[in-house]
TrEMBL record:
Keywords attached to this entry: Oxidoreductase
Protein name per Swiss-Prot or TrEMBL: SDR family oxidoreductase
Family assignment from sequence similarity: Belongs to the short-chain dehydrogenases/reductases (SDR) family.
Organism of origin: Algoriphagus jejuensis
Family matches, as Gene3D superfamilies: NAD(P)-binding Rossmann-like Domain
SUPFAM superfamilies with a match to the protein in the record: NAD(P)-binding Rossmann-fold domains
Length: 234
């Protein structure tokens, strides 16, 4: 029986790299993003390059709880994924004391609440099955506060705490939970920054860290992975 992976925000950057890595190993794919055109392009590409895998895509804005549930229900109609990667996220620069009203709520809803609701949507079935691996895509910003990080940093600190809690709650049921704490990775979010590409990590390197953590024996779990550019943070 085919294994499957669910990756939120899977059309670009790290999410796409993770999907490509697991698809190359024959995993069926579940993913969502806001842009329908990007999703259609991804689905066509995956089905062409990896014959035989199943690909479910859905346009969804995971900052809205009802959209999280709609996506989860669509996935459940096919099956419960073996791997869940909470990757959806947004970065809006600014300081907590003077950022635009509403930034905090929007970032928390997108980066944190989406992962909370989606994990809960599949947790009981993973418990019943006694298997599963949940990854949370965190950030170095969840370890070290920095200027202009504002609400984004808060959301990633909270993500790390939530992931640790899920780890403690789910480990008796043989469900693995891993935090990926990534530094600056070359994705669209850095477009126009004027920083040489070679200064960043590659999204494929982050994907390899996820694949490696997934492939350990049942007796072992990687609780946290910190990956950052060789020359340090940007």
């Amino acid at each position: 029986m085919s294994k499957s992976i669910l990756v939120t925000g899977g059309t670009k950057g790290i999410g796409r790299a993770i999907i490509e890595r697991f698809a190359s190993e024959g995993f069926d794919i579940f993913t969502c993003a806001r842009n329908e055109k990007d999703l259609a392009s991804l689905k066509s590409h995956l089905e062409k390059e990896h014959a035989g895998i199943k690909v479910l895509t859905m346009a969804a804005d995971l900052s809205k709880k009802e959209e999280v549930f709609r996506f989860a229900d669509a996935v459940k109609a096919v099956g419960v994924p073996d791997v869940l990667v909470n990757n959806t996220g947004i970065f809006l620069p600014g300081s907590l004391y003077n950022e635009p009203d509403g930034n905090f709520e929007f970032i928390m809803e997108t980066n944190l609440y989406s992962a909370y609701h989606l994990t809960r949507a599949f947790a009981q079935q993973m418990i019943d099955r006694k298997s599963g691996h949940i990854f949370s895509m965190g950030s170095i910003a969840g370890l070290t506060a920095y200027p202009n990080g504002g609400s984004y940093a808060v959301s990633k600190w909270a993500m790390l705490g939530m992931t640790k809690s899920f780890r403690e709650e789910l480990k008796p049921y043989h469900i693995k939970v891993t935090s990926i704490l990534a530094g600056a990775t070359f994705t669209d979010s850095w477009a126009g920054a004027g920083i040489p590409e070679e200064r960043f990590m590659k999204s494929t390197d982050v994907a390899e860290s996820v694949w490696g953590a997934y492939n350990l024996s049942p007796q072992t779990v990687v609780e946290e992975i910190i990956v950052r550019p060789q020359l340090g943070d940007i």
